[in-house]
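>> received
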Amino acid sequence: MLTEATAELQKAVDLSNGRVEMKAALAHVYALSGKKNEAQKIIDELSALGQEATSRSYHIAVIYAALGEKDQAFTWLQKAYQERDIFMGVRLKTDPKLDSLRSDPRFQDLLRRVGFTP
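>> returned
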């Protein structure tokens, strides 16, 4: 039902005035649908927002994880860690969108640094 999800998330982006979370959710669905170019366009938009955009780094990491680009995902998770992104403490340990990264030693190290017991 990725097509339906894409349509609904596009509505959510429009209604939310382009909130980071909504754009990231849309990009995540694009990535899962194999629409890499569309996902990358949103990554570029979010990247341009700068650090002041709430949780942008965490969300970009999630999109890269969905694209299968682990190194980029970890680069952005590291940025989120350095920015003290609240999502690192709230979602890092349980977010299913990061499941593809969990077996990587870098993820276990990140969990440890955030304060979770791996």
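>> The mean pLDDT is 90.
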